[in-house]
Amino acid sequence: MNKHVWWLSLVVILLAAFSATMSVAAPTAQEAIEAGNAQWAAGELDAALASYQRAAATDENSVDARLKLAGVRMARKEYRAAVEAFQDAASINPDDAKPFIGMGIAYLHLGQDSLAHAALTEAVRLEPARREQLEPLLTRIEARLDVGTATPSAD
Fold first, then answer.
1. Domain-by-domain residue ranges, the chain?
2. How far apart are CA 129 and CA 76, in angstroms?
3. What is the pLDDT of residues 93-119, one digit of tens each?
């Protein structure tokens, strides 16, 4: 075989190998979420957090990525960061009750009862079927706030 042909063949093979390694796609948001789920299940909260952050960065319209991110923040007792992630999820899909439920619980952990009440009330407005589930919690918050459900007088 001619020396030049041999070198050319080697270059082509090396370029093909390099192209193959470069074409390995970054994980999709769903793949990052699935990795985060497995890590969270294994108790690896730091790794799960990184996976969910990667998912959120990969797909800026993924409500699921932000809900998972918020959930792991709650598990780490990072309630302010959880509220921010729930707010991000709500800004992407303001008609989804789940971010408002999570936000309400995070606000309760922060001792911000009025914000918790507002978030949970919004969740019930968005998804009335959740009323029965959330009513006991709303009632307890109202008792602490002394909000009550009295209607204004008709003076």
1. 27-145
2. 30
3. 999 999 999 999 999 999 999 999 999
In this prediction, residue 27 has a pLDDT band, given cuts at 50, 70 and 90, of confident
- Of the chain, the percentage scoring pLDDT greater than 70 comes to 78
Question: How far apart are the C-alpha atoms of 146 and 143, rounded to whole Å?
Answer: 5
> Which CATH superfamily includes the segment(s) 27-145?
Tetratricopeptide repeat domain (1.25.40.10)
- Sequence length of the chain is 155
Going by C-beta distance under 8 Å and a sequence separation of 6 or more, which residues neighbour residue 47? 36, 39
Residue 130 has which token pair?
Answer: 């959740």
Q: Are 63 and 92 in contact (CB under 8 A)?
A: yes
Alpha carbon distance 116, 149 (integer Å): 16
Span 10-14, average pLDDT: 58
Average predicted confidence (pLDDT) for the chain? 87
For residue 7, give Cα distances in angstroms to 1, 2, 17. 10, 9, 15
